Structure formats: structure tokens, C-alpha cells
Amino acid sequence: MEELQMELTGKNIVYIGGFGGIGVETSKLLVKNGVANLMILNKTWNESAYNEIYLVDTNSVCQFMAFDVTAGLAETRSIFAKIVEKLGHIDVLINGVGICEERDFDLIISTNLMGTINTTLVAYDHMDKSKGGRGGVIVSIASVAALTPFVILPIYSATKGGILTFTRALAALKPKTGITLSTICPGPTETSQWTRMNSSICKEIDFKGYARGRKHTLQSPAECAINIVKAIKTNENGATWMCDLGQLKLVEIKNFWTPPCGKGQCCETAEQRNNTPCGSVERQETKQNQDGKQRDKPNQDQEEGLQNKTTEKVAALPPRKRKYEVSDLGRDMQNMKTSLNS
Ligand SMILES: NC(=O)c1ccc[n+]([C@@H]2O[C@H](COP(=O)([O-])OP(=O)(O)OC[C@H]3O[C@@H](n4cnc5c(N)ncnc54)[C@H](O)[C@@H]3O)[C@@H](O)[C@H]2O)c1
Q1: Partner of 125 at 20 to 30 A CA spacing, among 19, 103, 198, 319?
Q2: Is 210 a catalytic residue?
Q3: What pLDDT, on the 0 to 100 scale, is given for residue 263?
Q4: Rounded CA gap, 92 and 193, in Å?
Q5: 203 and 284 in one domain?
Q6: Tens of pLDDT, residues 6-26
Q7: Range of the domain at 142
Q8: Ligand 1 near 23 CB (within 6 A)
Q9: What is the crossing angle of helices 47-56 and 21-32, to 10°?
């Protein structure tokens, strides 16, 4: 494991969906770990869930704010501004909202995927060290459906796969932002999510029977929570965790395409190269003489000839050695801003 273990003692944690089946059990463990503040954002107030957490919360660190993740970016910004005003800063964001009712396409996509994207980007802006923040940790709860899509739940699987890919992309910016991102993929877990589940492609289906028939017995939310907290404390950037049948496993996600910088971490690489966008570095290299001196700018014919030669050379290389002449990609990525700043 590359990262240092993170202690939860004294941390300010925002848990979205903290009143759900997995949320309550995880929240109980978080307060047991001595967090300074646990701010639960949930669509609805849930007295019995709050009381369960309160029983183990001897220091009264748990607070609640009503929030619907489908409310959009402006509402999300506004609630996070209120949280930061209240707590001072956010150390850890847990994206734990998810629904499995596929028949309303828009709702499942805006809850599971857009909701996670909005809250992540807003929290990101507060945490980002390059914008004056203190860094932080963002953990998103996806599903094993992000690792192996469920035939009967194609839209749910797509939203969870989207969370996984979104998280892996942003994790590459950690050297600049100081924000660690990871995804946790629980297997089937005994919560009320199972009673509300419906599929966009099948009329009637016994979901629990389906899970059991495939030998995926349901784990308890308490077992799942222990492993979620373990994964959060391990604090490994870009990690994908599978948390199924009471076990926690780090999943290796392979990259099948080699991006222009060759490493898949363009911004990080650009930063190491003194903030020069990775695409333009490749361009400059081709314009230098062997002794390293910059030669005169070529005219248009020379430029085209050079480009053709480079393309031929690139095509002759085995795929992993290829370096593309992409002038704008690095710059675009460096200038990447969340729409929050606009
Ligand atoms: N239970 C499982 O088998 C299972 C398996 C894999 C992944 N997951 C994922 O784990 C997470 C938690 O699942 P769970 O089983 O505890 O679900 P749950 O239904 O018990 O809890 C979900 C919580 O989210 C809240 N919520 C729903 N819509 C909301 C919205 N629009 N805005 C704010 N809050 C909203 C609900 O009020 C509830 O408190 C979800 O992302 C789910 O997809 C669950």
C-alpha cells in the first residue's frame, strides 16, 4: 500500500446517504473511531437511524441536514457552503446514496451518477490544495455491478461503472490537489434497497433469489461497514475496493489504452515537467537538434513533412512505446476547471 493509514480521530466527515442500511452501520463505526463531526446529508430525516447512531455517539458529533442529491449543482454548492461555515472544513466526503429502481431512467442516473459527480466536484473545490484548501479524502460507494455488470440491472450497472471511472480519473490529480479518491464496491448486502429494486428489462424478478441462486449470499450491513471503514483508513489513492461476503479486496483495474503522456496521469506528469503541458513537451522534443539547441521555426511545408515523418515513426513503434503529437490535449487538461468556477 502506497499511502499512509489515515486516523479518523478528529476528522470532519460528510456522509451523504448516511441514514441508509449500510450508512447507519458505517456511521456508527465512524463515531466509534472518534471523528470530530459527522454531518449526515440524507433526502429524508430518519429518527430510528439517527437514534442508532446516537447510542454509540457519546460526544454528540452526529448532525443532520436534509439534502436531495438530485437537486443540482447550485443547491449542492449551497449546502456545502453551509457545512463549511459550520464545521470550518471537510476532511472526508462519503458518497453513499444509491437507488436500484431502474424503471425511472432519469432518476436513477441523476441520483447515482450525477449526484455523485456534483457532490464530488463541489467538495473537491473546497478541499483542493491548489485553490487554498487543505486536501482531503473522497470515497464513493459504487457496487460490484461496476466490476461485473448485472444483466438484469443494466442502468444501475452503468451508473456504478460511471462512478468508478470518474473516481479513477480525478484520482490522477492528487499531486496537485492533495485529494485522495477511491471507490468501494459492495456485494449484495441485506438492506431495504432490495425491497425497492426493479429492473428496466424484466417485469417480475426475485432479486434475492437471483443473488442466492448465484451463490452470492447477502452480507450484513455491519460486515460491509467494517470493510468500508477499513478501506477509508487505508487511504489508497485511486483504489477500487471490493467489499463482498465480509471480505475486503483491492481490485486491480487494467488500462487498455496508452494515453499521450504514456502514464495515464497527464496533469501529474505535466506538473513534474514544470507545468509544461505533456503534449507540448513532445512537440518541443521533435523540434530540437540532437545537441539540444532549438532550431528555427520550420515553414509550413517543413512542418507538414515533419508531421508525416513523426506519424510514420509513431506507427512503426509497438503500441506501448507510441507517443502522440497531441498539442492541445495537455494544455486542455491543465486548464481543466470544474464548471463551478465559471
Ligand atoms: N444493499 C446492497 O446490496 C448494495 C450493494 C452494492 C452497492 N450498494 C450501494 O451502497 C449504497 C448504500 O446502499 P444501501 O443498501 O444502504 O441503500 P439504502 O436504500 O438502505 O440507503 C440509501 C440512503 O440514501 C438515501 N437517499 C436515497 N435517495 C436520495 C437522494 N436523492 N438524496 C439524498 N439521499 C437519498 C435514502 O434515504 C437512504 O437513507 C448505495 O450507493 C447502493 O447502491 C448497495
Answers
A1: 19
A2: no
A3: 59
A4: 25
A5: no
A6: 999 999 999 999 999 999 999
A7: 12-251
A8: yes
A9: 20
